[in-house]
Specification:
alpha/beta; disordered C terminus; three-stranded antiparallel beta sheet; seven-stranded mixed beta sheet; Aspartate Aminotransferase, domain 1
Length: 409
């Protein structure tokens, strides 16, 4: 009776726990902590969506059990979104299901299609549920590179030829959490061709489809002809409409995978609260100006954060998408590791970030910084980080340009 349960034994200690504990202690002491560690949107849900929720809640009939796979109007609204945004046609009856956020959908589909010992291919680093949803279901996970390029494709080829048993499924997530990498349609074409050839399911997490900052608009893998033969895609209203706490997401694509998820969910839940589903229809089918406004808020925050970090002497790449910056630990602190550095930054600068190790072993050496505070607070955070870097003599010395000669001695 002293042994841990089998599935619990397969879950490692929660990497974020140490930083979260330190954060809670600091707040208990009355310290002002700027929390950039959790991807929790702080912008308000657009008013027309909230109004539709309030209106529907007033109807007592909406308080009964709902529909596990989503009310018909919601599934049609999601199909309409795919038609407008990606020029992809979906059958709302067989190719769409509503989920309690994309995280629940991913975990339950993993449970539906996984046999003990199956090999699943997952980018490393990646969002934890991408691997642990399958690990909980009894699978073995093989890590592949997280970059949407030839390196990942070569790794996939090696995995197919050297994994026993042969991989049955592959997870991709672009724009990526935590790395902020963005894929293009050419990459998806190669990925789909590979998966069809080797009969591997693809699960694409497109939660950050509308949070992008450059000219590259994130595509859907379902835009590739033939993708629905092997792929299902998860989307969410959490970031697009600042509805994270509403827990409203979707899976769309291959009818066999959608059917498997539908069957599993029919045993587990009665779907989201009906007023939330009705409000989600208003989000997908109503005015879309709010989507661009939310995107612009994150773009402004990204620019403020990256400029401030560069001024502090911390060279962090500017993300093309998602609501995160994936930051290499400054050289001065690399030996601390991502957990140690995160705790030091919290303790001395009052800024919380997420240790990269929490997203997989190849996340070590990085921290994830969320664009989840307003620009004033981000400026405050970067000033504190600049002071922290200076106190530790961690600001790199500017390199002298050898092309510039000293004309005056």
């Amino acid at each position: 009776m002293t042994e841990e349960f089998h599935r619990i034994r397969r879950l490692p200690p929660y990497v974020f726990a140490e930083v979260n504990k330190a954060k809670a202690s600091a707040r208990a002491r009355g310290e002002d902590i700027i929390d950039l560690g959790m991807g929790n949107p702080d912008t308000p849900t657009p008013s027309h969506i909230v109004q539709k929720l309030v209106e529907t809640v007033a109807d007592p009939r909406a308080h009964r059990y709902s529909v596990s796979r989503g009310i018909p109007g919601l599934r049609r609204a999601l199909a309409g979104y795919y038609e407008r945004r990606f020029n992809v046609g979906l059958d709302p009856e067989t190719e769409v299901i509503a989920t309690l956020g994309s995280k629940e959908g991913l975990a339950n589909l993993a449970s539906a299609i996984t046999s003990p010992g199956d090999t699943i291919l997952v980018p490393n680093p990646s969002y934890p549920i991408h691997q642990f949803g399958f690990i909980i279901a009894g699978a073995s996970v093989r890590s592949i590179p997280a970059t949407p390029d030839e390196e990942m494709l070569r790794a996939l080829d090696r995995a197919v030829h050297h994994s026993v048993p042969k991989p049955t499924a592959l997870i991709v997530n672009f724009p990526s959490n935590p790395t902020a990498y963005v894929a293009d349609l050419d990459f998806y074409r190669e990925l789909v061709a590979f998966a069809r050839k080797h009969e591997i399911w693809i699960m694409s997490d497109l939660a950050y489809a509308e949070i992008y900052f450059g000219d590259r608009v994130p595509p859907s893998i379902l835009e590739v002809p033939g993708a629905k033969d092997i792929a299902v895609e998860f989307t969410s209203l959490s970031k697009t409409y600042s509805m994270a706490g509403w827990r409203m997401g979707f899976a769309a694509g291959n009818p066999r995978l959608i059917s498997a998820l539908t069957r599993i969910k029919s045993y587990l839940d009665y779907g989201a609260f009906t007023p939330i589903q009705v409000a989600a229809v208003a989000a997908l089918s109503g005015p879309q100006d709010c989507v661009a406004e939310i995107r612009n808020i994150y773009r402004e925050r990204r620019d403020v954060l990256i400029r401030g970090l560069h001024a502090a002497g911390w060279d962090v790449p500017s993300p093309e998408g998602s609501m995160f910056a994936w930051a290499p630990i400054p050289e001065k602190f690399r030996e601390l590791g991502s957990v140690g550095f995160s705790k030091l930054l919290l303790g001395e600068a009052g800024v919380a970030v997420a240790p990269g190790l929490g997203f997989g072993e190849h996340g070590e050496g990085f921290v994830r910084i969320g664009l989840v505070e307003n620009t004033q607070r981000l400026r405050q955070a970067t000033r504190a980080i600049r002071h922290f870097m200076t106190e530790h003599n961690a600001v790199p010395t500017p390199q002298r340009d050898p092309a510039v000669t000293d004309s005056v001695s």
